[in-house]
Design goal:
Elements: E1 13-15, H1 21-30, E2 36-48, E3 55-60, E4 69-72, E5 76-83, E6 92-95, E7 121-127, E8 132-138, E9 149-155, E10 168-177, H2 182-190, E11 202-205, H3 215-218, E12 238-241, E13 246-253, E14 259-264, E15 269-274, E16 277-284, E17 287-289, E18 294-300, E19 309-317, E20 329-335, H4 358-367, E21 390-401, E22 404-409, E23 412-414, H5 421-426, E24 460-462, E25 466-468, E26 473-480, E27 492-496, E28 501-508, E29 526-527, E30 529-532, E31 536-543, E32 548-554, H6 557-561, E33 565-570, H7 572-577, H8 588-599
Parallel strand pairs: 2-5, 4-9, 10-13, 12-20, 21-26, 23-24, 25-33
Antiparallel strand pairs: 1-2, 2-3, 5-7, 6-8, 8-9, 10-11, 13-18, 14-17, 14-19, 15-16, 15-18, 19-20, 21-22, 26-31, 27-30, 27-32, 28-29, 28-31, 32-33
This protein binds ascorbic acid.
Ascorbic acid is lined by residues 194, 196, 405, 483-485, 490, 558-559, 562.
Length: 600
């Protein structure tokens, strides 16, 4: 029942690579053989019981969540993805992988590629440059919510150089689950009036949860509180540990909506990695994790009596609970061989911080710093450039377009074109999307972020992109505000494709240039996802050194569906010269272009 990571079962073949000059360089730098990992995946709908209630999930090779990919930094991963969904397209995004030189493999429908048609196969091919805890997921419509996800673990090529040591590791991929099917959710969100999807019915750990049933009761055989079905598909995870050891627990969140809080009863955790980047280690009793983020924590099994079972609990926060509230997901930390797995912990599960205790969350966010100093030099951490070349301020709010409730960024609700941007830009097909740039700032300096947006502001749908020249330092300020409902502002975790960025800081209220003095430019953490708190701002910085078309969006799936994102077209001139896999672009105007050139 324990699931200490085993040798990767998903790695169908490891093919020895040709020793081209570049491979040799990687070999010399990393002192290890970079390999090619070839995978064949089939996506299909399948009956499954993620929370013990039978439903339909998007499965890969017959499993949910999809297979875990395990690779070593420097490896090339090829995934031949066949779509067996019969009546819908599909794509998969490799979350946290920067796709240097392979922007066509980023797996974003209408942005980096055409959705893969039913019955067709598309081969993703990319290099995993940096060790860390990553995951993959659908990026077409709301297919992530339908269960299209799995883990992607990249190990250090030279584990001895890792800044911390451990005796074993576990991997926990967190998600949330609804009983309403995702097609219905999409229609509900786009309806007039909007019917919001509501809070999830269950939180899943590695695809397993419990609906309407306290797992505590599962272990108390005298209780009839719930009907534990013993179904393999929803059996709680058990992490088996030995005393006086150190374990690395990888935790990633691919939730559609829920912000989560992770804790292990009676154990402190040492945070050491965030989004594939090492951080200055610090101890916590609990850790917040937002959709799109990943962490590694070290668990020392020398805390308290080295026997017994302890609750691992994952609670929901950041959104007001409904009645009944989404119950925390629970798993078991089991000290073996002294304690049988079936012996339930002797006390109730730990209690999470209350859902709107943002002070607690902000303390945690502010504690995350990059690992610097002698230990960090092997990992190429560089502090950010001290000054930006361009600052883009993105106002996060809602508005109504006609009668539809939409999320708008600087008054624009993102819609995607039928020709992927990458192809349109590469081949100069200007009529594939609006050529006008979206604004770098929101309209009025007197905008009141404390109030709902004025409805007469002419919010619009647009597929416009920010064109970013190469090798520039870009600052983005995420400015949160009141949504349409009075006295409401929600949490949004923003994820950037193609890059890690430095998180320069968080602040309350409205950002002004004077807030620059608050920026941490010494040891800001590198991440690919960052949260903006209600009524606050978050500042981030990145350098445009990766030609491609990259989405930057709220990782809450219904919010993206409702337009909460922007597109960065980076180094357009370089994109025009790049080699791109044309298979990614056989739709829309690029598809027509290929067809016409063939006929000629
Ligand atoms: O996107 C959302 O829509 C609802 C609400 O604004 C409209 O019902 C909500 O809480 C969201 O997060």
């Amino acid at each position: 029942m324990g699931f200490i990571l085993e040798p990767p079962s998903s790695r169908t073949s490891v093919v020895a690579t040709m020793f081209s000059v570049s491979w040799l360089l990687i070999f010399l730098v990393q002192s290890s053989f970079a390999r090619v990992i070839d995978l064949k995946w089939e996506v299909e709908y399948k009956h499954w019981s993620p929370d013990c209630i039978e439903s339909v999930v998007m499965a890969i090779n017959g499993t949910f969540p999809g297979p875990t990919i395990e690779a070593t930094a420097g490896d090339t991963v090829n995934i031949a993805l066949t779509n067996h969904l019969h009546t819908e397209g599909v794509v998969i995004h490799w979350h946290g992988i920067t796709q240097k030189g392979t922007p066509w493999a980023d797996g974003t429908a209408s942005i980096s590629q055409c959705a893969i048609n039913a019955g067709e196969t598309f081969v993703y091919s990319f290099t995993v440059e940096k060790a860390g805890t990553y995951f993959y997921h659908g990026h077409y419509g709301m297919q992530r919510s339908a269960g299209l996800y799995g883990s992607l673990i990249v190990h250090e090529a030279e584990p001895v150089r890792q800044p911390f040591k451990y005796d074993g590791e576990f991997n926990l991929l967190l998600s949330d689950w609804w009983h309403q099917n995702v097609h219905r959710q999409e229609v509900d969100l786009s309806g007039v009036p909007i019917r919001f999807i509501g809070e999830p019915q269950a939180i899943l750990i590695n695809g397993k949860g419990q609906y309407n049933c306290s797992i505590a009761a599962h272990f108390d055989k005298s209780s009839n509180v719930c009907n534990f079905t013993e179904k393999e598909q929803c059996k709680p995870e058990v992490l088996q540990v030995k005393p006086n050891k150190k374990y690395r627990i990888r935790i990633a969140s691919t939730t559609a909506l829920a912000s989560l809080n992770f804790m292990i009863q009676g154990h402190k955790l040492e945070v050491v990695e965030a989004d594939g980047n090492y951080v200055k280690p610090f101890l916590v009793d609990d850790l917040d994790i937002y959709s799109g983020e990943s962490y590694s924590v070290l668990l020392n099994t020398n805390q308290g009596p080295p026997s017994g079972n302890y609750w691992i609990s994952i609670g929901v926060r950041g959104r007001k609970p409904e009645d009944p509230p989404t119950p925390p997901a629970l798993a078991i930390l089991n000290y073996y061989p002294m304690t049988p797995v079936s012996k339930h912990p002797s006390s109730a599960p730990p209690v999470h911080p209350v859902w709107n205790n943002y002070t607690h969350s902000k303390l945690f966010s502010n504690e995350i710093k990059a690992l610097t100093g002698p230990k960090s030099k092997d990992f190429n951490y560089k502090p950010p450039p001290q000054k930006q070349d361009r600052r883009i301020v993105l106002l996060n709010t809602q508005n109504k377009i006609k009668k539809n409730v939409k999320w708008t960024i600087n008054n624009i609700s993102l819609t995607l074109p039928s020709t992927p941007y990458l192809g349109a830009i590469k081949y100069g097909i200007d009529n594939a999307f609006t050529q006008e740039s979206p604004p770098d700032h929101y309209n009025s300096p007197s905008y009141n972020i404390e109030e709902p947006p004025p409805l007469e502001t002419n919010a619009i749908y647009s597929n416009a992109v920010y064109k970013l020249p190469s090798n520039k330092v870009i600052d983005v300020i995420l400015q949160n505000a009141n949504m349409l409902t009075k006295e409401h502002s929600e949490i949004h975790p923003w994820h950037l494709h193609g890059h890690d960025f430095w998180v320069l800081g968080y602040g309350e209220g409205k950002f002004s240039d004077a807030n620059e003095t608050l920026f941490n430019t010494v040891d800001p953490p590198l991440r690919n996802t960052v949260v903006v708190y209600p009524y606050g701002w978050t500042a981030l910085r990145f350098v445009t050194d990766n030609p491609g078309v990259w989405a930057f969006h709220c990782h809450i799936e219904p919010h993206l569906h409702m337009g909460m994102g922007v597109i960065f077209a980076e180094a357009v001139e370089e994109i025009k010269k790049m080699k791109v896999n044309k298979e990614a672009l056989v739709c829309g105007l690029t598809g027509k272009m290929f067809m016409n050139s063939h006929n000629d």
